[in-house]
């Protein structure tokens, strides 16, 4: 997904606990690792946000034990 540098990117991810698909919002200057709870089951995730040179965002979601 391409960001124009101003608007948040809406990314659909799948919870590694309950497997529900959830849409998260990623701000244009966000990158790195962070913790977020699933909106459905409330279990914690570790999100890893990376961006390529063109500003395309990639989000990896893993269980946080």
Secondary structure blueprint with pairings:
Layout: E1 9-14, E2 21-26, E3 32-37, E4 44-51, E5 57-63
Antiparallel strand pairs: 1-2, 3-4, 4-5
Counted beta strands: 5
Strand content: over 45%
The average pLDDT is 88
Q: Spatial order of the strands in the main sheet?
A: 3-4-5
Which oligomeric state applies?
A: single chain
Sketch the topology as an H/E string, one letter per element.
EEEEE
Polypeptide structure, described:
- The protein has 65 residues and is an all-beta fold.
- It has one domain (9-63).
- It is 0% helix and 51% strand.
- It has no helices and 5 strands.
- The strands form 2 sheets. Strands 3-4-5 form a 3-stranded antiparallel beta sheet, with no helix packed on it. Strands 1-2 form a two-stranded antiparallel ribbon.
Keywords for this structure?
globular, two-stranded antiparallel sheet, 0% helix, three-stranded antiparallel β-sheet, mainly beta, 65 residues
Summary?
With 65 residues, the chain is mainly β.
